[in-house]
Write a structure and sequence with these properties.
alpha/beta, six-stranded mixed sheet
Length: about 300
């Protein structure tokens, strides 16, 4: 039996990288039934054991066992609202790719990504892409957003996949880690990978001309190896981000700037909504906590039906 890491999945077949090479595998029926909470029992990044199938023409195998995951990022499944779809597992760091136009990334989407990642204890970094198409006002807006999230404690980069701006600095930061790229369709995830490793020549598409909304280029998550021991998981574009695994009472704990102040609240179980002597609310009113972040928090407490 060989141990390996899942590099690609089509839902039916899984490509597993082992010390003996890359094997095209299918899943043992018993393993498929073990996790009924997810639509995909195996995801990219999973550590698995495989049995090799003797074949002279191909490296084939059967996934026998999935090892417990250190972490995973999930979303609500499209067709099964009560189940999760796991995007990727065993992630060292996530890069949230953001654009201010063509298409525009909304603040609440950013915050929902970060809350999901905080809950799974996955380190996060914000990457502001397409700097080559912004005017002076938009460049200033990028700087304001970077300052907001840097003050919370998130590392931020501004780059251009098209011109190569700051791509080398981003690569240096990514050395020796497994990174997951997440973001809306059209923000340039595949283009960023191409700018770091042109030989991969991943497929990219232009935005739709009428709506300036991205079209899905990456259909399924896939892991790529770059130089300097950089490994990247490219994921399909996400429109919204439902909090499928996070109880409502835990949401407030995923905002680092809330945690710094919540211990001073009069109530240990303060929801930071209308309680007296709430230091989080005081910080919002004084401007120490960004109103955009607080509004995202309130939205996450509401019914989550429109997000997945």
């Amino acid at each position: 039996m060989l141990q390996g890491t899942v590099y690609k999945s089509t839902g039916k077949h899984y490509w597993v990288k082992t010390s003996k090479g890359l094997f095209k595998c299918h899943l043992r029926g018993r393993t498929r039934k073990e996790n009924q909470n997810s639509t995909n029992p195996i995801s990219v990044g999973d550590f698995v054991d495989i049995n090799v199938i003797e074949n002279q023409d191909e490296f084939l195998g059967v996934i026998h066992t999935k090892h417990p995951s250190n972490n995973f990022l999930s979303r609500k499944a499209t067709q099964h609202k009560q189940k999760r779809q796991i995007i990727a597992s065993n992630i060292d760091r996530a890069l949230v790719i953001i654009t201010f136009k063509q298409p525009k990334t909304h603040v609440e989407f950013i915050d929902r990504c970060l809350v999901n990642l905080e809950f799974q204890k996955i380190n996060s970094c914000l990457v502001f892409n397409k700097l080559d198409i912004y005017d002076d006002r938009e460049q200033s807006e990028v700087d304001q957003f970077m300052n907001l999230y840097r003050n919370i404690g998130y590392r931020c980069f501004k780059v251009s996949a098209k011109t190569g701006l700051n791509i080398q600095s981003l690569k240096d930061f990514m050395s020796n880690k497994l990174h997951l790229l997440i973001g809306n369709s059209g923000v340039g995830k595949s283009s960023l990978i191409n700018s770091m490793a042109p030989s991969l020549n991943l497929k990219t598409t232009h935005l739709t001309s009428k709506t300036h909304v991205g079209r899905h280029t990456t259909r399924r998550a896939q892991l790529f190896e770059l130089d300097h021991n950089i490994r990247i998981i490219d994921s399909p574009g996400i429109k919204g981000f439902g909090l499928v695994d996070i109880p409502k009472k835990e949401i407030k704990h995923q905002f680092p700037e809330f945690l710094k102040r919540s211990h001073q609240c009069s109530y240990s179980d303060c929801w930071h909504i209308n309680e007296p002597n709430c230091h989080v609310l005081e910080a919002v009113h004084s401007g120490e906590i960004a109103s955009s972040r607080y509004n995202s928090y309130l939205s996450m407490l509401q019914t989550d039906l429109k997000y997945r």
